[in-house]
Amino acid sequence: MLTAVIAATAAGGAMPVAAQTIEHGKWAISLDGAARKVTFAKDGSDVLSGVSVRFGYNGEVYDTSDYASATVSDKAVTDKAGDAHAYTITYRSDAGLPDVDQTFLLFDNADYFLTEVTLKSDAKISSNYIAPVYTTEHNLFLPVDNSNRFLTVPFDNDGFVTYGSHTLSCTQQGKPSSGRVARDSISFEVTAIFNGNTQKGLVLGSVEHDNWKSAIRMSGSPVIQSYMSKVEAYSGATHAATRDHHNDDNGGFVMRHGYLSGTEVKSARFMVGLFDDWRTGMETFGEINNVYAPKRPWNGPTPFGWNSWGGMATNVNYEGVMSVSDFVKENFQGKNNYAPDDVVFIGLDSYWGNLDWDQLEAFCNKCRENGQTPGIYDTPFSNWVHSPGDAMEGNNGYYYDEALLRINGQVTGHLDPTHPATLSRMNYYIDRFKALGIKYIKLDFLNHGSCEADYFYAPGVTTGIQAYNYGMKHFAERCGDDMFIVLSISPLFPAQYANARRISCDAWGEMWHTNYMMNSLSFGWWLDRVYSYNDPDHLCVTDRTEEENRARLTTGVCTGYCMNGDNLSTAGSFTGTVANQERAKKYFQYPAINEAINMGRSFRPAYGHKLYGPNSSVDLFYLETDDSWYIAYFNYGEATKSGYLDLSTLGIDADNVDTARSRELWFDKGVNIDSRGLQYEVIFNEAKLYRLYKK
Length: 695
Known about the structure:
It is built from ten helices and 43 strands. The protein is α+β, with helices and mostly antiparallel strands. Helix 8 (546-559) packs parallel to helix 10. The longest helix has 16 residues, at 420-435. The radius of gyration is 27 Å and the shape is globular.
């Protein structure tokens, strides 16, 4: 529905439309025609007001609030996300600037809408920055208390970066001013601004990742932790966190985002949603992303297996990896629900080149003889050891210098994902891997392929994400549908080229690493909507305490994925110890734990405002299945935690729990549930895993 209010002049004549309101479903979008700003309201309450569009053009930044006029049109459309009403506000300038069309897709009864901006001109225009949502008004849509939080999502998982759940104001400011100051933070691709006590929250993020790096910048309030003093959702983000900071003789610089050009230049499409539960909003965001770029198909069961990096690291050797295949066959497979559907990956990570091709073939044959799938590792956009004058692998006539990216005139170690030399190198390795029967590949340092650069080889490719899409699409198609692709260090988006993604950076067995990895799951659990699996990295259990080992394996349950990383070799130049291997046998042979891992589903955090441990993770997670509720409770190095857990906070009706069948799975003990809730005790560095059966 579209309504308009016509203001009258003092002489009784008509002025241009001063106010127009778009209403559909739960949402109303009101345009102040005089100020050229809009207000987003849901169910009759304002969410964001004073919203304008900002964009870059001819080296300057412009704002639609400075434009001369604004008009509104509407039509019904059929979108991938469903039937919608598309309302477009067209801003026109009298200063020779491009027209600005902002389109809103509103859906029946949805808690969100989608919006995008298109710059239009009869002549060719270029832009590397478009913000469909920009406001500096004080917006308050949450309860006024100190549980309000702003979520920061990292661009990738490099350098042990963490997610952040921040209060809306900072701590004491230094001289010359004093007092608390507003937090200014940036989150990549998506954020949630939520209240921890009620879970109500705004989720704002990009659902398209074809052309742009996108981000959300927010400033909070200086004293009370309640309102936002700035919200900016934009396409065209570069930052040290996007790996676009580079060193030079002047102390370094951040490379600007590439430009898009044409008579029309469109931003990414963004979701704006206000949800009773921000976690539902994040899951909805993931599902919409999957609508626009469906996840890489995987019809197989949950993978189990082994990866060499955790325990062998640089010491990969032929005799050793052959013995690992036998060890996994003899001690894990077919026992106690380990890989019950017979999908076992044995993956050689970095330094697999310690084997020659004949040895690699023998290793692959050994894996198949043992009922396993051989796996390998690659960094398709990185040059680690070659000089610029070296020939590219595959006798293709190319040299490394041809494919190396230039950034601000500097030659880098990153390969242009669009260059035929890079693509030919991909073909060479993929074809050799496939000829050996390899059907699992781990890709690393992919953020080297998403950097902005001076230019890219392929015509029409002008941004880092365009180049990344170009290279990854080629890689995935060359692999074929039967190759399981897992991403290691990589951008969060685009996601459609892989079956799984390691949710954090490297994580081993000590509690510090468990806490770090669970930080990523605390705020990235929803990524199993855009990848088939969240990968918790190599599960190393051999050289830690019993409590730490149980906690680390519980992270595999909470992600629904299981790759052991211990040194299981019994032969060769770098054997594991018998004592450590006995521990591995123990921890990967708990039937109830393996059954839970095999669900292949990520657990949801119980909240987002209470964080624990040195890497600020949620400590309580849960998952509902057809017949049960699973609850994982972590202690990241604190004193013993004990008491009663109010199950209603997890959406569980205690009266519907079959206490006679319910168990704590690590110790196979019954549970005690009374009017106070589920009784628990979680000691230092431990995790408890409960399965509560439904009546």
